[in-house]
Design a protein that fits this description.
63 residues; mainly beta; 3-stranded antiparallel sheet; 3 strands; elongated
């Protein structure tokens, strides 16, 4: 199989919850879109820590 490249959107989960509760506008939810290389033989996804500059207890992501 080898490696594939994906575009991933990382969203600050605390901001996402606050936006759903109406505490902040959805436009203020912090997120970053990055390209990642995935080893199809690997068993773990370990994002580069340089991209996780926004503090949150939990990060949600979608592909």
């Amino acid at each position: 199989m080898g490696e594939v490249t994906l575009k991933v959107k990382l969203t600050n989960a605390a901001d996402e919850v606050n936006a759903l509760r109406g505490l902040i506008p959805p436009t203020e939810v912090r997120h970053v879109e990055i390209e990642v290389h995935v080893d199809c033989r690997g068993r773990k996804l370990i994002p580069n820590s340089a991209h996780l500059h926004q503090s949150a207890e939990r990060v949600s992501w979608t592909t």
